């Protein structure tokens, strides 16, 4: 069964989809090649929208019109991980500023990998680990990098590494 072109009095076969005018839904009409070309020359998706509506549409188009979570969203995985990392109870513990005694402890593979991710030497003083973490956070924070997912993923890994070392240092000092 042939589809007839949905143009005024056209008897050609309609093989090409075209949106129904002023209808942003998935509804379409079938047109012949000649009329779909004519339609496309005149089609303006933003017809009838004011400047603000167009700007909002373009902003939403960046995320494929899907809702996104802001960094500050309470159920954002990254924020939960971040807040956990910032709950640094190491500052509450009064201990010797010199961590030379840490060298006698053995660090597991996860600790060694975490030191590597943060770019600090194994058994580094805790203050140096914190200092490096803060620098990396400033460098890779999503707000500093226009929300780029690549940087967000990198910061997640850095935060996990920091959390690993925080827990290890806490165990070594408390234990």
Verbal overview:
There is one protein chain. This protein folds into two domains: 1-68, no CATH class; 77-174. The model is unreliable at 93-98 (pLDDT under 50). 14% of the residues are buried. The chain has six helices and two strands, in the order E-E-H-H-H-H-H-H. It is 47% helix and 5% strand. It has a two-stranded antiparallel ribbon. With 175 residues, it is mainly α.
- Strands in their spatial order, largest beta sheet: 1-2
Enumerate the spans where pLDDT stays under 50 for 5 or more consecutive residues: 93-98
Oligomeric category: single chain
Class by alpha and beta content: mainly alpha
Helix-strand string: EEHHHHHH
What gyration radius follows from the Cα positions, in whole Å?
29 Å
Tell me, rounded to a whole number, the average pLDDT. Answer: 79
Helix proportion of residues, in percent? Answer: 40-55%
Q: Find the count of extended strands (DSSP E, 2+ residues).
A: 2
Structure annotation, total helices: 6
Largest sheet: 2 strands, antiparallel
Residues in β-strands, percent: under 5%
Shape: rod-shaped
Distance between the termini: 81 Å
How many domains is the backbone divided into? 2
């Amino acid at each position: 069964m042939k589809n007839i072109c949905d143009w005024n009095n056209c008897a050609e076969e309609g093989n090409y989809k075209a949106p129904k005018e002023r209808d942003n839904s998935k509804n379409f009409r079938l047109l012949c090649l000649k009329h779909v070309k004519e339609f496309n020359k005149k089609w303006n998706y933003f017809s009838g929208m004011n400047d603000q509506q167009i700007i909002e549409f373009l902003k939403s188009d960046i995320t494929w019109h899907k809702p996104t979570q802001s960094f500050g969203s309470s159920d954002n995985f990254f924020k939960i991980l971040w807040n956990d990392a910032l709950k640094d109870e190491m500052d509450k513990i009064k201990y010797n500023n010199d961590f030379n005694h840490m060298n006698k402890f053995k660090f597991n593979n996860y600790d060694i990998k975490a030191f590597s991710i943060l770019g600090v030497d194994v058994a580094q003083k805790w203050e140096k680990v914190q200092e490096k973490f803060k620098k990396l956070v400033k460098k890779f924070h999503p707000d500093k990098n226009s929300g780029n997912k690549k940087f967000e993923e990198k910061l997640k890994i850095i935060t996990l590494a920091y959390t690993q070392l925080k827990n290890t240092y806490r165990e070594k000092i408390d234990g």
